[in-house]
Task: inverse folding
């Protein structure tokens, strides 16, 4: 055990247990803590007091970039860089440029969403202290954990463990950094 | 009126309490299976030894795929003339096969995106395999236009990349729109599929690490990006997934709309119609669900997945096939009506010719497979008979291939000028190349079911009763 542990972790066996436990950790005023679950649990964001994800803003930025890229690219290639009249049609019109711009809107939104999700989540991150927990493997199978980090201002090894025990946590242990 | 007021116990005009009949919700996972059962069942498919049938199927699929490889090598070495195109039918099996395969892909996106937005929870157990089907179908589809350009090493001319000719692509052409539609569709389908895979790859990483298989733990772990099931991550992940579903919905509708523009924007009789976009989209979803049934029913039987793909799932897929097949039937009828009502002699002739002309046999196959076949799905006894459903799904696949053939070949073989009329027959190279794409598709699909989880475990867990934090007694 190093001098400064990463935090403490506790196991819960069902989604109902972890949901109510998370509400109590939230109400105890902790900020730097997390829930680990094998699947998204409906309502857990509220139970943890999380704010709405900012990923949609990144997506919107990506979509707008895509649309502008499409329109300006088509204007540049067909009406500016090398204008060629085809079939008596205008050199540039937003109407015929629309389908390609529409597809690029979607393409850029998809990339922005996924890259945004990774960046906001801090992934890829192949090591995390929670992975050293002997039961961690079950976190991607059928168990639920609460991790409370030592850097939380309210963290106190004894009190935090007592709280986790009170709310039904099992196998409470310290996590090395 | 007075008598009413005076009565001792007046009947209330409005009921104090309404007790609507509670309809039982269909069970999505049979036998109320636990989380660990779901994990073991789906991971077990990957972790177990490779079954003999898999090797047999893989060998056959490779042989079939070699027909495409041989056909393409011959075409590149010789020229596009090895295909059966000749005036006036200069666009035939290549575009037929392209539209056929792209259409098949659409059901995967429908299941993963549109049904996600509509909160159809039954999609969870079939969406992974259906998305894989989409990607592999797009691969097969892309082969045809790419090699139809002839000098395939110039296929990059399709994209607006500066080249030594200083000439840019013609963005007024629906064919150029199609390049963007299909490449976006392929890319977004792969991204969507990959995002869905991340939590399941993490599960596999942890399971392989637990049994000491370091190579596979490293490989799955690499692609899992260090996923650890953190709820702070799930929160962003769910939002990203929802947005991807939200953008894939207009994407899938636009892709087949733009594919139909390839025809509808031209002036050829039988193509130049406004009904094409919705008609093509409905047909694509219809054919895609046919293919989903064709693939999922054998998988369900082989791997004993009856608790995950229940009769309810099959019912839902059959009903969508019925609905979209009926829309397609309506479109066939409406095309004829408009050809008559529009009073354009060329249009009228084209449709009479389609049904009774030289390709009458193809038209008959198309109508019987696409309009009559799905009508069997009205009957519960048919939907309960898995073997029969599977046979019908094959008819749907055949019928939808013929639909594209009928639309494309009949209109071109008999256009405005009788002096330019002709008859199109495919060359042997064309037939082999198309036949081989079923092998290409099967090879990819077999690799997928061997190495990746065929069902999204995390998503299935999320729709089970155990994931409901109120355990069924307090819904809000």
Result:
């Amino acid at each position: 055990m190093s001098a400064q542990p990463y935090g403490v972790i506790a196991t819960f066996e069902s989604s109902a247990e972890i949901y109510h436990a998370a509400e109590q950790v939230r109400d105890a005023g902790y900020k730097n803590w997390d829930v680990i679950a094998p699947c998204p649990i409906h309502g857990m964001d509220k139970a943890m007091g999380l704010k709405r994800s900012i990923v949609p803003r990144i997506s919107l930025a990506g979509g707008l970039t895509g649309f502008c890229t499409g329109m300006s690219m088509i204007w540049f290639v067909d009406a500016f860089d090398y204008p060629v009249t085809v079939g008596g049609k205008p050199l540039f019109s937003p109407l015929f440029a629309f389908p390609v711009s529409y597809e690029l809107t979607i393409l850029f939104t998809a990339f922005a969403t996924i890259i945004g999700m990774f960046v906001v989540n801090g992934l890829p991150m192949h090591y995390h202290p929670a992975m050293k927990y002997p039961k961690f493997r079950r976190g991607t199978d059928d168990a639920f954990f609460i991790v409370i980090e030592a850097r939380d201002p309210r963290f106190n090894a004894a009190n935090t463990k007592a709280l986790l025990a009170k709310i039904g946590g099992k196998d409470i242990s310290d996590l090395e950094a | 009126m007075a008598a009413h007021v005076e009565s001792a116990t007046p009947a209330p005009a409005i009921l104090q309490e309404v007790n609507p009949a509670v309809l039982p919700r269909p069970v999505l996972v049979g036998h109320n299976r636990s989380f660990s059962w779901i994990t073991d069942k789906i991971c077990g498919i990957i972790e177990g030894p490779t079954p003999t049938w898999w090797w047999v199927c893989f060998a056959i699929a490779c042989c079939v795929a070699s027909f495409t490889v041989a056909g393409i090598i011959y075409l590149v070495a010789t020229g596009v003339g090895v295909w059966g195109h000749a005036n006036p039918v200069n666009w035939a099996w290549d575009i037929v096969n392209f539209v056929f395969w792209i259409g098949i892909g659409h059901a995967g996106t429908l299941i993963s995106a549109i049904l996600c937005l509509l909160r159809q929870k039954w999609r969870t157990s079939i969406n992974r395999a259906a998305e894989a089907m989409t990607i592999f179908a797009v691969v097969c589809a892309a082969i045809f236009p790419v090699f139809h350009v002839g000098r395939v090493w110039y296929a990059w001319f399709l994209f607006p990349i500066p080249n030594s000719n200083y000439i840019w692509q013609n963005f007024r052409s629906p064919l150029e729109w199609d390049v963007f539609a299909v490449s976006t569709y392929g890319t977004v389908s792969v991204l969507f599929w990959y995002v869905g895979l991340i939590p399941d790859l993490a599960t596999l990483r942890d399971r392989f690490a637990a049994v000491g298989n370091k190579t596979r733990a490293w490989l799955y772990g690499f692609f899992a990006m260090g996923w650890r099931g953190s709820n702070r991550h799930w929160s962003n992940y769910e939002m990203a997934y929802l947005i991807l579903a939200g953008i894939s919905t207009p994407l899938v509708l636009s892709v087949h709309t733009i594919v139909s523009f390839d025809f509808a924007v031209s002036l050829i009789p039988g193509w130049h119609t406004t009904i094409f976009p919705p008609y093509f989209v409905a047909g694509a979803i219809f054919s895609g669900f046919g293919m989903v049934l064709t693939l999922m029913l054998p998988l369900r039987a082989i791997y004993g997945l009856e608790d995950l793909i229940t009769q309810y799932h099959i019912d839902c897929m059959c009903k969508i096939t019925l609905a979209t097949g009926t829309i397609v039937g309506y479109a066939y009828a409406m095309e004829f009506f408009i050809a008559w009502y529009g009073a354009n002699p060329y249009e009228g002739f084209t449709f009479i010719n389609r049904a009774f002309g030289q390709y009458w046999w193809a038209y008959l196959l198309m109508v019987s497979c696409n309009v009559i076949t799905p009508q069997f799905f009205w009957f519960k006894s048919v939907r309960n008979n898995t073997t029969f459903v599977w046979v019908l799904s094959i008819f749907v696949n055949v019928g939808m291939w013929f639909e594209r053939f009928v639309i494309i070949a009949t209109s071109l073989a008999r256009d405005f000028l009788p002096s330019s009329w002709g008859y199109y027959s495919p060359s042997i190279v064309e037939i082999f190349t198309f036949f081989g794409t079923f092998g290409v598709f099967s090879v990819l699909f077999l690799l997928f079911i061997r190495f990746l989880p065929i069902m999204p475990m995390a998503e299935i867990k999320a729709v089970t009763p155990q994931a409901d934090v109120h355990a069924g007694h307090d819904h809000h």
About this structure: Chain B has one domain: 51-151+171-462.
